[in-house]
Amino acid sequence: MQRLVSVFASSFSTMELAEFSQVFVAAPEVSTQADGSQLAQWKTNTVMGQDTLKQIKPEADIFMFASQELLKLACFDMDSTLIQAEVIDELAAELGIKDQVATITERAMRGELDFKASFRERLALLNGLSAEKLDGIFNRIQIMPGAELLIAKLRAEGVKTVILSGGFELFAARLAAKLGIDEVYSNVLDIVDGKLTGTAIEPIVDAEFKARQLVKMATELDLASSQVLAVGDGANDLPMLAAAGIGIAYKAKPKVQELAPLTLNYGGLDGIAKALYGDV
């Protein structure tokens, strides 16, 4: 069974392999052996945050968890993962309090604050914001580079795609429609008389919800964890990343990079598609 690490070896030159492996791990060293095979020293992160060094021949059936043929479910965070913004900060900008809210958001994503408590605190500050502003906010948010290519490739390979977001369903649903993502689980803003009330309709989509929903979907589809991909950037994504066979922290906060199974710090999200399927 072909493993992700052998895809690296077969799809890229030595130089490209060195560059691309750096995307997922830190400071790899790649050399070509006398028999033409490539030997790489990989620095990988375990879920517990312990760094390990392994000497691996790329064709060896070790190191990675899933083959490209078996991946069947891909779950994504939205804010700062599929899009280049934190939506709640953009909502705050309409009220002139973006810096105040963004500071709380940053601390929450770093894992310094309880997500639910900080979410409710930030949301309360948005009380009274006109819902008429929401369309304009969505229209100015930029999609993360490589997201469209990655989702298109996953769909072409028959992979179910899902947004699991601690952001807002109104935005996540529109993004899903634009990208062709199958399902959305996100927070629902409470809107009364055309204005935000500063609350969200329960349940709140937090870290535990994300992980629980990922496991529920995998169970319903009768999938092994090795058939599940998850991608996120914040501390509230860590349980979801740990629950997936392939959990990738994308340009993530320091704590998340330390604890996540894999990290992607360079390039766009299409790097994941290249890792899974070679040239795309």
From TrEMBL:
**Annotated pathway, please?**
Amino-acid biosynthesis; L-serine biosynthesis; L-serine from 3-phospho-D-glycerate: step 3/3
Which InterPro entries does the annotation name?
Answer: HAD-like_SerB (IPR050582), HAD-like_sf (IPR036412), HAD_sf (IPR023214), PSP (IPR004469)
Key words, A-Z: Amino-acid biosynthesis, Hydrolase, Magnesium, Metal-binding, Serine biosynthesis
Q: Which SUPFAM superfamilies match?
A: HAD-like
Required cofactor names:
Mg(2+)
Identify the domain of life.
Bacteria
Q: Which GO terms describe its molecular function?
A: L-phosphoserine phosphatase activity; magnesium ion binding
Q: Name one GO cellular component term.
A: cytoplasm
Q: What general EC class does the enzyme of this chain belong to?
A: hydrolase
Tell me its EC number(s), please: 3.1.3.3
Q: Which residues form the active site?
A: D77 (nucleophile), D79 (proton donor)
**Might you name a Gene Ontology BP term for this protein?**
L-serine biosynthetic process
As its record notes, the protein acts as a catalyst of: O-phospho-D-serine + H2O = D-serine + phosphate; O-phospho-L-serine + H2O = L-serine + phosphate
Question: What NCBIfam families does this protein map onto?
Answer: HAD-SF-IB, serB
Family according to the record: Belongs to the HAD-like hydrolase superfamily. SerB family.
PANTHER family named in the record: PHOSPHOSERINE PHOSPHATASE (PTHR43344)
What is this protein's record name?
A: Phosphoserine phosphatase
Q: Which organism is it from?
A: Umboniibacter marinipuniceus
